[in-house]
What we know:
The protein has one helix spanning 183-187; strands spanning 3-12, 19-26, 28-31, 46-53, 57-65, 76-82, 85-92, 100-102, 105-115, 120-126, 133-134, 140-143, 147-154, 166-168, 172-173, 175-180, 192-201. By secondary structure, the protein is mostly beta strands.
Amino acid sequence: xxxxxxxxxxxxxxxxxxxxxxxxxxxxxxxxxxxxxxxxxxxxxxxxxxxxxxxxxxxxxxxxxxxxxxxxxxxxxxxxxxxxxxxxxxxxxxxxxxxxxxxxxxxxxxxxxxxxxxxxxxxxxxxxxxxxxxxxxxxxxxxxxxxxxxxxxxxxxxxxxxxxxxxxxxxxxxxxxxxxxxxxxxxxxxxxxxxxxxxxxx
Length: 202
């Protein structure tokens, strides 16, 4: 399987204007067994998945499945929760502007925030307007070694953007995120800018 690697170029706002490099990885990769899809559902709710991290990770972007690689039909709220509290949220816009596409997930850059080793989190996005990947077209999921997929969750019908709490026996994948395994790298982002540049390795 081809692994996607992103290079982060950080220009520090320091007197020497130094440049710092780091690598970013998608938290989850999907191997599909067909070109089909699930949804989108007719009601506004949030679906996502629960996961546990085994080492500290810095999050650099949040993204949503983009079936045809041509941009989302509607903007979607997306966020990550811990112990029921929203850690970070943003909106992935409709279309392609201001986003980067990586293996059918369309990401938007975020302010850096950290996931703590040993903690369990939930990532979710609103559902109306764009399809997602379900059991009938999913062959395999792969996460980074430091991330353990736990279960699929959705929020109640017509609950809008809210913590998904209802467990599902089947897979539903819409949201994803980008992480930096070395959190100290992104400490500098508080005083700098971020540019994502895509490259590949096999």
